[in-house]
């Protein structure tokens, strides 16, 4: 993704009440942050945040945390949340590589990955958010029957992701579709992301998988 640097975005993140920019010691504290025991669901690589903000509006009894590496991208979601002030939505600006420092084992109920960066070069495979290295990190934070939902229009990344789940002994695939929007069983309740809207309007089929901890 081409990134437009927005001057001042970093400072906004540091001062904003809904954003955590130094989350390294927050494992085990999310019940206190939200002030309740509701399930916590996270989106990694949330971009401008339409997906997670929509889910938070639809489901007030579930807590949502959007994770994004770049302040300039996160800014749009933060501005929206400044208006909406949803009590069940927070953001973390971080590289998800260190996600194990941010959540305790079992603290996360579900992980959403939407249109994750493909990192097409083989030598960068471990940076893909569905690589076995990332799946291993997710086992450290998900609850026992927790799962990962992943959507993309990138068939190469999707095929890689299916194989990574199959190769990871702690995981099983429960759903795989290569055309979500034409799958009548799965499309109901689908919340579109910014990228999903863009790529599906160009005629690209959207793939989705769900991988569950065994
Ligand atoms: N999920 C959004 C959507 O579907 O519209 C945005 C998709 S965009 C292609 C991928 C986003 O993931 C970018 O905003 C990028 O900065 C973020 N990202 C990529 N790797 C990340 C990582 N390791 N940790 C946190 N965010 C990451």
Automatic annotation (TrEMBL):
This enzyme's EC code(s): 2.1.1.33
What is the reaction catalyzed?
guanosine(46) in tRNA + S-adenosyl-L-methionine = N(7)-methylguanosine(46) in tRNA + S-adenosyl-L-homocysteine
Name this polypeptide is given: tRNA (guanine-N(7)-)-methyltransferase
Q: What does this protein do?
A: Catalyzes the formation of N(7)-methylguanine at position 46 (m7G46) in tRNA.
Q: Which UniProt keywords apply?
A: Methyltransferase, S-adenosyl-L-methionine, Transferase, tRNA processing
Q: Which CDD domains match?
A: AdoMet_MTases
For the ligand (substrate), the binding residues are 121, 153, 193-196
Metabolic or biological pathway, per its Swiss-Prot or TrEMBL entry: tRNA modification; N(7)-methylguanine-tRNA biosynthesis
Q: Which SUPFAM superfamilies match?
A: S-adenosyl-L-methionine-dependent methyltransferases
Family according to the record: Belongs to the class I-like SAM-binding methyltransferase superfamily. TrmB family.
Short name of one Pfam family: Methyltransf_4
Note the HAMAP family from the entry: tRNA_methyltr_TrmB
What's the superkingdom here?
Bacteria
Q: Identify the species of origin.
A: Lachnospira hominis (ex Liu et al. 2021)
Which residues of this UniProt protein bind S-adenosyl-L-methionine?
43, 68, 95, 117
Q: Supply the enzyme class, top level.
A: transferase
GO molecular function terms listed in the Swiss-Prot or TrEMBL record: tRNA (guanine(46)-N7)-methyltransferase activity
